[in-house]
């Protein structure tokens, strides 16, 4: 009985994580595609968008070297000082980048960060 309850709880947690991840995947994709166009997306919170605007030229240059965006895939969660972030791998024609994203209560991304091309 304990095993069945444990498995059921694990499945519910996994389903909840996947559902959350699918929701942020669209926002992550939109933010990346906007940056590739030299713009900071409306899916970013006010502070993150302001930070983006200060570095958009470098971001656009780095992303353009990677080529067109092919896919965005949820890889898991990562604990950060700002809370639990969802990790996504963006695959481009010429390389990959990992991105961390946290959704604010407003629905916008209060964290959107990458360590750079892999």
Compact overview of the structure:
The chain has 118 residues and is α+β, with helices and mostly antiparallel strands. The chain has a single domain, classed as Nuclear Transport Factor 2, Chain: A. The protein has two helices and four strands, in the order ααββββ.
Summarize the topology.
Blueprint: H1 2-36, H2 46-66, E1 69-80, E2 83-92, E3 95-103, E4 109-113
Antiparallel strand pairs: 1-2, 2-3, 3-4
Give keywords.
118 residues, alpha+beta, Nuclear Transport Factor 2, Chain: A, 4 strands, disordered N terminus
Describe this structure in words.
There is one protein chain. The protein has 118 residues and is α+β, with helices and mostly antiparallel strands. It has one domain (2-113): Nuclear Transport Factor 2, Chain: A, CATH 3.10.450. Helix content is 47%, strand content 31%. It has helices at residues 2-36, 46-66; strands at residues 69-80, 83-92, 95-103, 109-113. A four-stranded antiparallel sheet has the order 1-2-3-4, with helices on one face. The radius of gyration is 16 Å and the shape is globular. The chain starts with a helix and ends in a 5-residue tail after the last strand. Residues 3-20 have low confidence and may be disordered.
